[in-house]
Amino acid sequence: DAKTTQPNSMESNEEEPVHLPCNHSTVSGTDYIYWYRQLPSQGPEYVIHGLTTNVNNRMVSLTIAEDRKSSTLILHHATLRDAAVYYCILRDHSGTDGAAAVQYLRGGEKEGI
């Protein structure tokens, strides 16, 4: 069973980058690393995912360690609107259909960015 661990909370100044680490030492070769966030009074929403290489989108970057046992979500210019619970999860894509991931949420969380 894949496990992830994260710090309980992180703090940041507005407009500064925030690095949210996640350890996943039990990652397998077919596990994708997914990040979701949950804003107050809302359901989880997808942020970014990757397998072996670093990934960027307009809001964040995901850096994945060479051994894939850890990753870091980087919010480049955090604002109060980014204050949320952030989830790092592993999803096995070998033979799965890529169904909705909400039921797969597990691991730590981050608050008060």
Automatic annotation (TrEMBL):
Swiss-Prot/TrEMBL keywords: Adaptive immunity, Cell membrane, Disulfide bond, Glycoprotein, Immunity, Membrane, Signal
Superkingdom field: Eukaryota
Swiss-Prot/TrEMBL GO biological process terms: adaptive immune response; response to bacterium
Protein name as catalogued: T cell receptor alpha variable 26-2
One Pfam family this sequence matches: V-set
Organism: Rhinopithecus roxellana
InterPro entries tied to this protein: Ig-like_dom (IPR007110), Ig-like_dom_sf (IPR036179), Ig-like_fold (IPR013783), Ig_sub (IPR003599), Ig_V-set (IPR013106), TCR_complex_component (IPR052051)
Localization of this protein: Cell membrane
Ig-like domain ranges (all copies): 1-103
GO CC, alphabetical: plasma membrane
